[in-house]
Amino acid sequence: MMQAxxxxxxxxxxxxxxxxxxxxxWNAYVAAGASREERRARLDRCPPEHRxxxxxxxxxxxxxxxxxxxx
Length: 71
Description:
It is built from three helices and no strands. By secondary structure, the chain is an all-alpha fold. The chain has a domain of 48 residues. Helix 1 runs antiparallel to helix 2 and helix 1 packs across helix 3. The termini are far apart.
């Protein structure tokens, strides 16, 4: 998926995205949480319309990381 030309790629995933930011920015922000609790708190701040997709993305990222460690 390509990044929209008018929105630069998020350089600082620790900065909370704007409420109208696309789901990709929220994906990076939530996944960058240092602990499961921090990621849950970040997901709670995500706009409701993006939450299911962001949750799925973060779960997939960590499942792939686990699989990479055990393969």
